[in-house]
Amino acid sequence: MSGYVLRVPPTIHYGEKASSLAGAVAKRFGTSKVFIITDNFLASSGAIKAVTGPLEEAGVSFEIFSEVNQEPTLAHVTEGLARLKQSGAGAIVACGGGSPIDVAKAVSAMAVNPGRIQDYMGADKFEKDGLPVIAVPTTAGTGSEATAVTIITDTERDVKMLISSPRIMPRAALVDPLLTLGMPKGLTAATGLDALTHAIEAYVSRRAQPMTDLLALNAIGLIAKNLPLAWAEPNNTEARGHTMLGALQAGIAFSNASVALVHGMSRPVGALFHIAHGVSNAALLGVVMDFSLSGNYERYAEVALAMGLPDLGEARRTAESGAARVREIIRQLEVPSLTQLGVTREKLAPVADKMAEDALASGSPANNPRLASKAEIIDLYYQAL
Ligand SMILES: [Fe+2]
């Protein structure tokens, strides 16, 4: 059969105070108790009240697991699953950046499917729907609230496992830009550039389709125009709102059209050098775009136009201006380079081969407009330093 499929959460509430619907939405799933997965900062700063307050008002009891303080690993899933089972909760509320939401998806699926999370690496392996997950993002980046994807680091093999299945799609997303107000500049940059990467990769992906194209192009425009403003003015409500809407659209776009070479190469950087996902994407985005442009100048030219750049009359030139603008945004947002984060040629040399192999094995590079060989991927890693 030819055609397209677009999978999205059944309910998405977007807007200021959307998080105040947490109680009402939880009740819709017919449970009187939820398991909240979050991080220690949100739990201890009181920010978690954005969801616990509405839950209390609706008479829904909860237990909080606040140990997802870094990008998810096997241990978060094992511990979270054990605590969920003890709690007896019938649904999960995930509140935080992509990490708590990704852990929630994995825990929800493992609550009803046998074996270990490692058994489900790849696509479409779960046989049963997970427990309902209500995702409440507090960053504008991963789009995890609207994707059927979770990334869990297998610390035994130093591999960031990509696990995708419609069965882990959040049942509801409450996307409230007020939760991102005041976010520190470094986190705003890393998460926002992750979202921009999602939108660009979804648009140029070989699996792009008409419905994801609309979302991806709109997201590129929203993020390119508003992210620098949200970064410079952390309490600018309008810029925060537009950036978060862009991140949501980018999430839906890439969840259905897939990401490509940047993400494929970025995961091994995170797994081996423990560098935040958005930062490793930002480090790779410029060099990978330059490498990839010739694979589809037309699509990359449309990326440039979506960012508000003029049509230079020739797809190649317009595409190149878009890549230059992306580099400028990354520079403007003062994202640290891989070298500044301690990744030197000497440290890269012994692991570059494994990184390129893991990148290719993830499948994402196969969606890139220009396919890269293992040797080319290794070369791109060095160029990104
Ligand atoms: Fe990403």
Low-confidence stretches: none
Question: What percent of the residues sit in helical stretches (DSSP H or I)?
Answer: 40-55%
CATH topology term of the largest domain: Dehydroquinate synthase-like, alpha domain
The largest beta-sheet arranges its strands as: 1-9-6-4-2-3
Ions, cofactors, ligands: which are bound?
Answer: fe (ii) ion
Task: Name the overall outline.
Answer: globular
CATH superfamily of the largest domain: Dehydroquinate synthase-like - alpha domain
Count of structural domains: 2
What does this molecule look like?
It is a single chain. The chain has about 375 residues and is an alpha/beta fold. The chain is about 50% helix and about 10% strand. It is built from 15 helices and nine strands. It has a six-stranded parallel beta sheet, with helices on both faces. It has a three-stranded mixed beta sheet with strand order 5-8-7. Helix 7 packs antiparallel against helix 8 (about 235-255), helix 10 runs antiparallel to helix 12 (about 315-330) and helix 14 (about 350-360) crosses helix 15 (about 375-385). The chain starts with 10 loop residues before the first strand and ends with a helix. Bound molecules: fe (ii) ion. Fe (ii) ion binds near residues 142, 194, 198, 263 and 277.
